[in-house]
Amino acid sequence: MTEESQPKSRSHSKIEGSTLAWGLVVIVVTGIITWFAFAAAYGVGVGSGNSNTPTKGGTTGGGGPDYIYMAINANPDRNQSTDQYTPANFTVPTHTLLIFQITNYDNGENPIAPIYSQMNGTVGNLEYLNGSTTGVSSVPVTSVAHTFTILKGPYAGFNVAMPAASTTSPTVVTFEAYFNSTGSFVWQCMAPCDSPSMASLGFMMGTMTVVNG
Ligand SMILES: [Cu+2]
């Protein structure tokens, strides 16, 4: 009886050991995933409001691009009456490749002057839509929901058009830019979308602060 019960007992303890090992694997994997999520949230970009100052890319302190993430009408009521870029006020470094990614949830199209359907001032005067690797220098003038436009100062003429979202998915606009003159510069949307927003810093206009990079 003693001899019989011992193997059983060993077998049982093996199962317990195996369960413990799997438990440890789950904890380690969960820890790794949590770390990557944390690094992605805090190490890469502006995000949706945690920090308006993107971190330097790369590991040498100056090499890689900086990512700036913005959203338009990213809230439960995506066609809200108050149109808004988030963040609308942000800081970027000079002499650094900036990769902007703007996710537009607004499916309303607003009439614009044709010039604001053309990209100007971005790298190659291009924008990239919905993950495409082929850039476009303009979009159909009737497809635009909002623009990111600078009218005055050293960046006067800078323009990117944000095509309207579909009813089921946002439009993701990506563009690259360098801003090498320091200062604070007002950008604004030139699509007549929402009058109060268009006249309010932090909504359809904002301040881009350029600091020495
Ligand atoms: Cu707008």
CATH fold-level assignment of the largest domain: Immunoglobulin-like
Distance between the termini: 78 Å
* Beta strand count: 10
Shape: globular
Share of residues in strands: 15-25%
Number of helices: 2
CATH class bucket of the largest domain: Mainly Beta
> What is the name of the CATH superfamily of the largest domain?
Cupredoxins -  blue copper proteins
Q: How would you classify the helix and strand content by structural class?
A: alpha+beta
Rg over C-alpha atoms, rounded to the nearest angstrom:
24 Å
What is the average of the pLDDT values? 80
Strand order of the largest sheet: 2-1-4-8-5
The hetero compounds bound to this protein are: copper (II) ion
Main beta sheet: strand number and arrangement?
Answer: 5 strands, mixed
Layout of secondary structure:
Layout: H1 2-43, E1 66-72, E2 85-86, E3 90-93, E4 98-104, E5 128-129, E6 144-149, E7 159-163, E8 171-177, E9 183-188, H2 195-198, E10 205-211
Parallel strand pairs: 1-4, 3-10
Antiparallel strand pairs: 1-2, 4-8, 5-8, 6-7, 9-10
Bound molecules: copper (II) ion.
